[in-house]
Amino acid sequence: MNIANISVAECTLDIDNDIKARKICGRYEAETARIGKPRKHRAASNDLIACYIFSNDNNHVDKDGYGHTPIFITWDSTQHHLRDLFRAEFPFAEWLIYSPQRALERFSMVDFKMRSDIIKDNVLAIFDEDYMRDSSLTDTLAIFLGDNRIESDAIISVLTKLSGRMHGETPDSGHFEIDERSTVSRALLTIQNEFRDNFDTVRKLFTNPDEEDEIINILSKYMEGKIKDDELKTEFNLLLNKEI
Question: Mean pLDDT, to the nearest integer, of 155-168?
């Protein structure tokens, strides 16, 4: 492990004899059982140990003395529930939870290594680890993501932030569920069909930082069912009129 530059963090806390740890673990086991993803006590305890390790700032200081927010990369969606339970007892505990595909997408963007030939897969990684199964969303995004790198990156930014808004996460989120992916696809198709004769302006709208929050607000309202297709088109039309 030393050759691979991997270090193993340790937690000396006795989970079974600590009052707060027992309370968190008990609630976690009850919650996972309620949602149909039960955890055996040993597995729940190991998950909780990871929380204590992630929440210990001393474990996340680099050689120059700077602290960094830890990232937990996992397919296990129940970790979001556990983090919420842990934060109820330790409000200042902070770590991010990424699926492997989502982590790849984020790290690629941070390092400015995203290539145009993988851009659709990376955007889809925002929504769900099973993104390869959703061909309708793939086709929809193919319409939106043109050859212009700046416009495509702007659309990625909006969809990433929309994902965070829908799940109350900052700065990261879990992912869109299957029904939410369908709603996103329907919203994008509605916009494309309505403004197909002026679609270059639609793409440019996404690159305008002054309108990004408003675009996210409109899409969030549509995702939450607060507005329908006609209202979506009306609100986007008002934004587009500012661009013309």
Answer: 65
Asked whether residue 44 carries a pLDDT value surpassing 60, the answer given is yes
Using CB atoms within 10 Å of the CB of residue 101, give its burial: 0 to 12 exposed, 13 to 18 middle, 19+ buried. Answer: buried
Residue 166 near residue 180 (C-beta atoms within 8 A): yes
Q: Could you tell me which of 24, 23, 32 has the C-alpha nearest to residue 51? A: 24
Separation of alpha carbons 141 and 145, rounded Å: 6
Structure tokens at 27: 């609630």
List 121's β-bridge partners, or say none: none
- Locate tokens 């043109």: which residue? 146
What pLDDT digit, counting tens, does each position of 193-234 carry? 888 888 888 888 888 888 888 998 998 888 888 999 999 999
Read off the pLDDT of each residue in 30-55 and give the average, rounded to a whole number.
91
pTM (predicted TM-score)? 0.47
- 8 Å CB contact between 181 and 238: no
Compute how many other C-beta atoms are within 10 angstroms of the C-beta atom of residue 83: 21
- Determine the distance from the C-alpha atom of residue 125 to the mean position of all C-alpha atoms in its chain, rounded to a whole number: 9
Rounded-to-integer distance, Cα 68 and Cα 103, Å: 16
